[in-house]
Amino acid sequence: MLRYIIRRLLYAIPILIGVSLATFVLFNVVATPEQIAKKNLSSKNPTPEQIQEWLKDHGYDKPLPVRFKDHMTEVMLFKFGKSDATDEDIWGMIKVGVGPSVSLMVMVLIAGTFVDLTVALFVAYFRGTYIDAWGLFLCVLLMSISYVVYLITGQFMLGRILKYYPSSGFREGADVWKFLLMPAAIGVVSSLGQYTRLYRTFVLEEMNQDYVRTARAKGVSEDRVLFGHVLKNAAIPILTSVVTQIPLLLMGSLLLESFFNIPGIGGMTVDAIFSQDFAVVRAMVFLGSVLYIIGYILTDISYALVDPRVRLG
Amino acid sequence: MLTNVDWLSTLAPFVVLAAMVIMLRRAGRTPLWSEAFRRLRRNPLAMISLAVISLYAAVAVLDSISWRTSKTDDFRTLLQRIAERPKERTYSAPYATVTTGEPEPHPLNEKHLLGTDGVGNDVVYLTLRGCRTALILGGLTSLIATPLALMFGMLAGYFGKWADDAVLYINQVLSSIPSILLLVALMMVLGKGVLQLCIALGVTSWVSLCRLSRGETLKHREREYVRAARALGLSHTRILIRHILPNLLPLVIISVTLGLSGLVLAEAILSYLQLGVPPEVGSWGNMINGARVELAREPVIWWGLASASGALFVLVLAFNVFGDALRDAVDPRLRTG
Q1: Which of B173, B180, B317 is the closest to A19 by Cβ?
Q2: A200, B316: Cβ pair inside 8 Å?
Q3: Is A204's Cβ below 8 Å from some Cβ in B?
């Protein structure tokens, strides 16, 4: 097991090198530092000297190969440097943002998985009936609504019409859940359709297996077949999809955090996008990829832990 | 960087339309597709969604035909000539006779079915203008990404060895960047615009298609018919194009169709991040994004949001339903449940 994990981690290194190469090409070759400088200074109507000074301050004035070397070593050592827009230390910004992001993420993940799974089992229980057909159609309806519409109308409905307070913001402390309840609820509803459909497929795939027929032939009740036998086996693909969601959520709550003014990593990234802060976005792209790769490795490991048939070689 | 592309975005809808017609006509002659079309025709939901998509496409085409009456005139599209209404002063509710949000309401020139926006434009007209952008995003992106993905995927799967390694490596690198962040980075670098958005979306959607076609090619490479073709001395190009490609197309077309809704939805998210299309291009994403402030006003301005998100919802729903129906029709084994 340990050997497998180490090997997977070693495999990740060339991929990470590739990712940092891609970010370098994007932010240094496709968009030249002069363009970045102009975008950052555009409000001040800069002179060429000011641009040169800005480039020097942010380390963009060196020749391309030197910048490439610096970029690769810095990124590989997780040294992200300073923000282009505010000159803050990027690691410091990330550390501040992790707490709120993780608390929102945990809430969305737990509540979301519970709700999605319940609905999926409910629909699968009534498979082949009108409830199933309408449930599926409802899922497609939910999937067809834009995420931004969920956010805007969700906040409007809960805040303006149901008078839920607080409708945005964040405060550490015992009543932190109050601030997270509304964004979490919207996060859950927005992904309900997609994951319910996915989990239903997983459950129904198991339904067609031989052991289900055997159980039925032995006279096991339909409830026990579904909850005792099928659910246990469907747990493997479901678990995999939940684990892959974790790194996604940390980044995927970009819009959620920024919309509800939660000072997390996602909100910070959106602010960086608004202020054309290339350094922060570059760091976030790399960090997001690291999380993603860790997520994949975790998925494989959890797969092996849950399913004894999977052999790690 | 990419500024002089007006002619391309003018041509885009026609290119997409022509590509679709050619593909449909060619596909209709093969037994697999004519059987699939027969099954599709019997599915009322699929036919309704196809009609909806065609309606949107018709509006998009109307918005792409433009001419000017005199040298000094601006180019005006057919849609502009049909649906554009004279400007009002400011917001007005659907079917109202006076403006909203002013201390003293002013009478309107005429009644507007869905009201007007902050600068007095008719919301129906603004919503109709969004059709073209949405369909160009879906169509042009697929048209750019699919051939590239097919080419790389098939080359990697067929020749294996270093070609496979190289394509797989690029693929893994791109797929390990979370797609929303990759989109954001690309759009920040390329700048706002419809074509830029198509390129960015193409880069992100290329990955999964390429992997799909690589895997399928790998499977087909060992089949008897390919070996027979090779034994008969056919060139690799011919085997790839005439023998393997037709076998990949059903899966590829299904996954492209199912991906269309995601492409259209991505525009709204990028508009929220202010990385979408420029404001002078009609887009539902920009309208929805603008509604954030409008909903906070008193009285609530809801019609802009309602019509833009309604139009987006109906199109995406039609894509979703049609994609599912197409998948079931082409390969009933892939049916969910």
Answers
A1: B173
A2: no
A3: yes
Q: Once rounded to an integer, what is the mean pLDDT over residues B99-124?
A: 80
Q: Which of A142, A146, A204 to mutate to test the interface with B (most CBs of B within 10 A)?
A: A146
What is the model's pTM? Answer: 0.88
Q: Do the chains contact at B320 and A144, CB–CB below 8 Å?
A: yes
Helix, strand or coil, per DSSP, at residue A167: coil
State the complex-level ipTM: 0.85
Q: Do B189 and A27 touch (CB under 8 A)?
A: yes
**Cis previous bond, A166, omega within 30:** yes
User: Can you tell me the distance from the alpha carbon of B128 to that of B282, in angstroms, rounded to the nearest whole number?
Assistant: 8
B180-237 per-position pLDDT tens digit: 888 888 888 888 888 888 999 999 888 889 999 999 899 898 899 999 999 999 999 9
Q: Tell me the residue type at B38.
A: R
* Beta strands per DSSP E along A122-187: none
